[in-house]
Amino acid sequence: MTSLLNNINSPDDLRLLDRKQLPQLADELRQFLVASVSQTGGHLSSNLGTVELTIALHYVFNTPLDKLVWDVGHQTYAHKILTGRRDAMKSLRMAGGISGFPKRDESPYDAFGTAHSSTSISAALGMAVAAQIEGNDSRAVAIIGDGAMSGGMAFEALNNAGAMDANLLVVLNDNDMSISRPVGALNNYLARLMSGRFYAAMWRGGEKVLKGMPPVLEFAKRAEEHVKGMVTPGTLFEEFGFNYIGPIDGHDLDTLITTLGNIRQLQGPQFLHIVTQKGKGYARAEEDCLLYHGVGKFDPEHGIIAKPAANQTYKPSYTQIFSNWLCDMAQLDPRLIGITPAMCEGSGMVEFAEKFPQRYFDVGIAEQHALTFAAGLACEGMKPVVAIYSTFLQRAYDQLIHDIAIQNLPVVLAIDRAGLVGADGATHAGSFDLSYLRCIPNLTVMAPADENECRQMLFTAFQLNTPAAVRYPRGCGPGVAPQKEMQALPIGKGEIRRSGAGVAILSFGSMLAPALGAADLLNATVANMRFVKPLDKELVLRLAREHTLLVTVEENTIQGGAGSAVAECLQQHGMSNALLQLGLPDTFLEQGEPAKILAACGLDAAGIVASVRCNMLSGIPKNSEAVIPTLRQAQDK
Predict the structure, then answer these.
(1) CA 178 to CA 571: how far, in whole Å?
(2) CB–CB of 292/89 below 8 Å?
């Protein structure tokens, strides 16, 4: 029974509870989380680990006036439940439902929208400075995991914040025991002591007295630093200008609330280090927090059970195609180096890491570093392959241009999750890579239409002595078995996959299957363009001469994408053909089943046919913008 939890619809209700009731609430909250996520899927281990922290933060701080900024945001389910969204959890990560991440327009308690790593300290610092300028007493809290501390942006923010006197609290959730030693009663006692008013007042008073004796003041500061250093690992954060407190047990509600209450009264930048356990309270998640990090639906009583192989041909995902190619290519060429920014499993590098450990580098959540590190390797004759999600490559755009492209270095970008990604929504969708890649000189950009083409394009990219990108979608392709033998494709050349009359559909990447389906109903020609850059201009111009209407189809935003490249080609050569550009519309598409969202955008076979017929009847191009008014209704169905 959730007798306490059922009566909490906001943090105001939470604050009415006696502190002695909070451990029971934590137990109920964990039970609810396991039951809820088992029905919807989502992030489980990280959320189970932050239950007590979430309760304590809302119990001590006056949210939403005080701002909580959750880094990455995949550990905010308890936060959502306690802030009035308990009943909405059944729609988590679904079309028309609540997001799996904090979202400003979803709740006033979501102070900042997050989903990418290492942004919380910067955002919270901005809020703290705004409060300071406005003269109010609200506080800003950044909750960041130890993994996110590998992102350089976090340290940029620490460096800036430590030089200010804004009332910012950074809570480091150390959930892998990667920084601290095991904690205990002594550390909890010291944390209470160092966060209390007596300690702060004593130090401020002593500092005033000692200012007249600089050598003694310096000695006192060094003595305090060394005493703290003997029992805490906080010297680094003290050097940044923060008052470091911890580490403390992140599952000890009494210690958390006392410490946070003391910190709430302090002025200036504060740093609280807590240690938690991923998967806390659910034995299976405690034993294998990685397996239960991101889950689909499962039976809580029996846990995640591997499904028996079905009596059908195995259909590998694009990620698995990349994984197989990477190992095969590494066997052939000892210069191949595999790099990932903390996405080993997601990017399909586990097998490579096991077979070639000396050539595998996980650089942490540091996309900028990953690309410049690859550039340095390439300068010395290595052939680096960077496996990265499309949405995360955006974070290293300057490094791609400045450190790789300008120097024309042979770095291969294996870009996973290009296009729509489903339940993770707008923050993780790879909607823009064709637009932001094709404008970069020296870069070859390829988009495979099927699994075999993906393998061959990766091989093609690796053979080049220049930068190259292969972008492929999440999940499985149409089921074209990849050939073991690898052959380089002719650079910048597409192919005709179906001959027709009147209409020519130029398909880029994942859109070939729906393009062929539409062409059967339209008797249209279909070209698998393969290369976005260099564009097969010869093929474009031939199709323009032989057809009345050209239609470009891509799983990328229309603005600046592959269709724009075709439009530029036609304009440069004085061709006046009607051109219909179909792609993702000029809006951020929310979570939902990719197939349904693509259909709502007119990017399935039926949608392509409808757009072409509408265009031919009216004579006016009807790009994907025309579907925007109906997009929400289609998503909600």
Answers:
(1) 57
(2) no
Judged against a pLDDT cut of 60, whether residue 379 lies above it is answered with: yes
pLDDT tens readout for residues 179-205? 444 445 645 655 665 566 555 554 455
> Which of 498, 535, 532 lies closest to 518, judged by CA?
498
Looking at the DSSP bridge assignments, the partners of residue 270 are: 169, 243
Q: Which residue has the tokens 């959320």?
A: 47
Supply 303's token pair. 């846990």
Q: How far is CA 65 from CA 141, 222, 453, in A?
A: 11, 37, 53
The alpha carbon torsion through 70, 74, 76, 78 (nearest 10 deg) reads: -150
Q: Going by C-beta distance under 8 Å and a sequence separation of 6 or more, which residues neighbour residue 130?
A: none
Burial class (CB in 10 A: 0-12, 13-18, 19+), 137: exposed
* Residue 608 near residue 627, CB atoms below 8 Å: no
Q: Is 48 exposed, middle or buried (0-12, 13-18, 19+ CB in 10 A)?
A: buried
CA–CA separation, 583 and 434 (whole Å): 11
Q: Which residues contact 39 (CB under 8 A, 6 or more apart)?
A: 90, 297
Q: For residue 559, what is the DSSP state? A: T
User: What whole-number distance in Å separates Cα of residue 555 and Cα of residue 637?
Assistant: 22
Instruction: Let me know: does 569 contact 533? Beta carbons within 8 Å.
Output: no
User: For the whole model, what pTM was predicted?
Assistant: 0.81
Q: Tokens 């474009």 map to which residue?
A: 540
| Cβ atoms of residues 492 and 358 within 8 Å | no
pLDDT digits (tens, 9 = 90+) for 566-605: 999 999 999 988 999 999 999 999 899 999 999 999 999 9
134: number of Cβ within 10 Å: 8
Q: CB of 129 within 8 A of CB of 72?
A: no
- Please spell the DSSP secondary structure of 498-536, one letter per residue: E--SSEEEEE-GGGHHHHHHHHHHHT-EEEE--EEES--
List C-alpha distances in Å: 383 to 461, 467, 596.
11, 10, 39
> Which positions are annotated as active-site residues?
278, 367, 395
**Phi and psi for 48 in degrees, rounded to 5?**
-65, -30
Can you read off the two tokens belonging to residue 523?
Answer: 């008797």
Question: Given this model, what pLDDT does residue 222 score?
Answer: 54
**Residue among 388, 477, 474, 366 at smallest CA distance from 425:** 474
What 8-state DSSP symbol labels residue 425? G
Helical ranges in 90-140 per DSSP H: 120-134
Q: What is the DSSP string of 331-346?
A: HH-TTEEEEESS-TTT
Distance separating alpha carbons of residues 258 and 249, to the nearest angstrom: 12
Measured from the Cβ of residue 207, the count of other Cβ atoms closer than 10 Å reads 12
